[in-house]
Amino acid sequence: MTTHRIRVGIDVGGTFTDAVAVDATTLELLGQVKVPTSHHHEDGVAHGIVEALGRLLDRTGHAPEDVAFLAHGTTQATNALLEGDVATVGLIGIGSGPGAALTRRLAALGKLELTPGKRLPLHYAHVPDPDDTAAVRGAVDDVIREGAEVLVATQPFSVDRPEGEDAVLDAARGRGLPLTAAHEITSLYGLHKRTRTAVVNAAILPRMLATADLVDASITKAGVSAPLMVMRCDGGVMSLDEMRRRPLLTVLSGPAAGVAGALMRERISEGLFLETGGTSTDISVVRRGKVAVRHATILGRTSYLSALDVRTVGVGGGSMVRIGGGKVTTVGPRSAHIAGLPYACFATLDELRDATLATVSPMDDDPADYVVLDAAGGRFALTMTCAANALGRVPEGDFARCDQEVARTALAPLAAALGTDVATAAARVLDAGTGQVKSVVDAMIRDYRLDKDTAVLVGGGGGAASVTPHLAAVSGQEGRIARHSEVISPIGVALALVREQIERIIPGAGQEQILAVRAEAERAVIAQGAAADGVEVEVTVDPQTHTVRAVATGATELRTQDRAHRADADERLRAAAASLKTGPAEVRILADTPSHTVYGTEVRRRFRATRHPVRVVDADGVVRLHAPDARVETTTAGRAPEVLAGLVGEATSYGDGGVRAPALRLLIGARIADLSGVLDPQPLLALARGELRARAADEPVIAVLEVRT
Fold first, then answer.
1. Contact between 124 and 105 (Cβ < 8 Å)
2. What are phi and psi of 364, to 5 degrees?
3. Does 252 have pLDDT greater than 80?
4. For residue 371, what are the β-bridge partners?
5. Confidence band, pLDDT 50/70/90 cuts, at residue 683
6. Which of 402, 445, 453, 487 is 20 to 30 A from 600 (CA-CA)?
7. What is the pLDDT of residues 439-452, one digit of tens each?
């Protein structure tokens, strides 16, 4: 049964603000609108957000009180750094003796280059003793006189002893400036990197605070009672209060919204998401149902900001064709949009009459090898989208589809210049563009050790059809374009889960310390509005860096989807067999619950041990977990602690590299609890007990174990 409650996602882009409404129960798209982004309005981008929301509610016939969830993604923080539009930072360093030398060096952060010729505006002052209130206030006065609009306090080892930074902020209160302590932004060691992350966060803080207040007030005035959430750069959302504290988390959130949409709507468990616009393609990885995240590089330096690992290639739907020596040499990086030219394939046949091929420099400093058509209707660009349409790669109903006859007519002069037919010319254009994308895709498959045979390519964005279908065809990989690909980013915002990541460096971390980090992450997402019963926490322990990391995710309401379709046994078997690259007759059911079916097969190899690959398929027929060689055991929540202790004991390996417990995942109810990030058997078993604690003793539990070598 369909509910009147909706989830709203709004994506604030540089040019347009897109908004979508998604049914809160079925997660189906109900409506979408596009309005110009209101950069120059007195209320800034808040005006465009409210305008988009109003039009969306009108179009879908909903009232403000029907909104169960509202989130927006914004490029404002990213643009502020790219354009150098930041606040002047007052940095108060703390320390005496050797510590003073370390903090005084931080004044060099004022040399960070925002844009060519423009450096981060920063003024440094030093206090030996943070408890000397008079000295602290004098230092604060000094940086304010220099123009500081926001203050940061930093001290060596503040992760363990934050009292000094807190004392400085206490003494600075009442001056009307936003305040930040470096230990509040990240709890990882490394004074210089921690302070640099905090300083960049502070530089965008005043602007983001003003926007947050305007958006919050505008949404409340519009009658929406659901709390406003903001897209993070790691694929989740956070509360507005959390954004006010750490606006840096919104940097690079644009690509994160798209992959969040693909992850939640397309149910990718293993593959790559390619979001293609007019000029470029952002490529990101989904591995075992999770987005790939790493510490981001900001202003040319690594930071402690955990962001989506996205790699950008300068090839998009509008990328122009370049020729030389009688062949297509490449496409891009210049796009028709930047050159100010229309796509030839979107012209009419009459406009393309008497077309002749020419080469130009789209911009003054560009090489003169970009192809254009001079025709009766004016000058047109030949693009990747033109080639994809000419070759029939753009599906019916796609945002970028045009009349194939027009596209073939547009490509005819290029084909004549190359001495070939239109289909071959179009294929050469697509080969040149997708070849650049393929090299990055192949590198990411290697980096994340994806199984190339099972990794699916999913395209999103308005230019998806110009890249993904052809890349899939030439690489032999499964590929598809996401449904409603042109609005996949706002869909991702609407469907995203509340997310929080807690990182601690704990040498020799024991069971209690690991569980404490896990509990802190869980509390953090609940405090931001996640329903406590649905929170999932993934814990990893890196024995080399001694980093304990807990990532908690949860929905603001428990999602009990009422889907009209559930895959039957044959559909689930076929999905597993296709993923295992074998026939259904070679696949057997290893375990089964109402939510998941576990399938396996045997791969015999000459002179090598037999492998037992496993696939976990959910009730919708989606492969949720790939395991190249695993053991599967079924038990109950009551017996699981004893059973798991035996299984982990048998599968734990010992060697020069230390103790390595098996990679363990538990299928409990509708969840897959991923405990594979913990190598020590005792904390692993403690985390497993935590996952089972609230379960009925007779509830079935499936354990999937992979032995580490």
1. no
2. -55, -40
3. no
4. 359
5. very high
6. 445
7. 999 999 999 988 88
Task: State the pLDDT at residue 564.
Answer: 44
**Which positions ≥6 away from 657 have C-beta within 8 Å?**
none
Q: Name the helix (H) or strand (E) containing 472.
A: helix 468-475
d(CA 133, CA 99): 19
Band (pLDDT 50/70/90 cuts) for residue 565 is: low
Say how many CA atoms lie within 13 Å of 531 toward its Cβ: 10
- Angle formed at CA 579 by CA 27 and CA 464, multiple of 5 degrees: 55
* One-letter-per-residue 3-state SS of 324-376: ECCEEEEEEEEEHHHHCCCEHHHCCCCCCCCCEEEEECCCCCCCCCEEEEEEC
- Give residue 605's pLDDT: 77
Residues facing residue 614 across a β-bridge: 600, 627
N residues, the chain: 709
Residue 166: in which H helix or E strand, if any? Answer: helix 163-172
Q: Give me the mean pLDDT over the 185-198 stretch.
A: 91
pLDDT given for residue 280 in this prediction: 86
**Is pLDDT above 60 for 562?**
no
| Coil vs helix vs strand at 643 | helix
Rounded Cα–Cα distance for residues 195 and 152 (Å): 8
Measured distance CA(614)–CA(627) in Å, rounded: 5
Q: What's the average model confidence in pLDDT over 309-334?
A: 92
Largest Cα span, the chain: 81
Fill in the amino acid letter for 340.
Answer: G
* Residue 1: band (very low, low, confident or very high) from pLDDT cuts 50, 70, 90: very low
Closest CA to 518 of 678, 326, 288, 639: 678
Q: What are residue 344's phi and psi, to 5 degrees?
A: -65, -35
User: Residue 249: which residues within 8 A CB-CB, separation 6 or more?
Assistant: 232, 233, 234, 238, 242, 243, 305
Q: Do β-strands 228-231 and 118-119 pair in parallel, antiparallel, or remain unpaired?
A: unpaired
Place of tokens 């902020």: 169
* Long-range Cβ contacts of 435-442 (<8 Å, 24+ apart): 436/313, 436/314, 436/315, 436/330, 436/331, 436/332, 437/274, 437/281, 437/283, 437/313, 437/315, 437/467, 437/471, 438/471, 438/474, 438/475, 440/283, 440/311, 440/313, 441/272, 441/274, 441/283, 441/471, 441/475
| Cα 55–chain centre separation | 27
What is the per-residue pLDDT for 452?
Answer: 80
Specify whether the CB–CB gap between 607 and 679 falls below 8 A: no
The identity of residue 256, as a single letter, is A
Residues 56-76 have a mean pLDDT of 91
Mention every residue, 6+ apart, whose C-beta is less than 8 A from residue 432.
321, 328, 329, 330, 331
N-terminal to C-terminal alpha carbon distance within the chain? 49
Q: Are strands 6-12 and 67-74 parallel, antiparallel or unpaired?
A: parallel
Which of 211-215, 217-221, 423-427, 549-553 has maximum average pLDDT? 423-427
Instruction: Kindly tell me if the per-residue pLDDT of 65 is higher than 50.
Output: yes
CA distance 81 to 74: 13
Helix (H, G, I), strand (E, B) or coil at 675: coil
> Which two three-digit tokens encode residue 455?
């990794």
Give pLDDT, residue 3.
56
CA atoms of 35 and 19, how far apart (whole Å) = 9
Residue 441 tokens, joined: 């895709």
Q: Which of 272, 264, 178 is nearest to 499 (CA)?
A: 264
Is the predicted pLDDT of residue 425 greater than 80, yes or no? yes
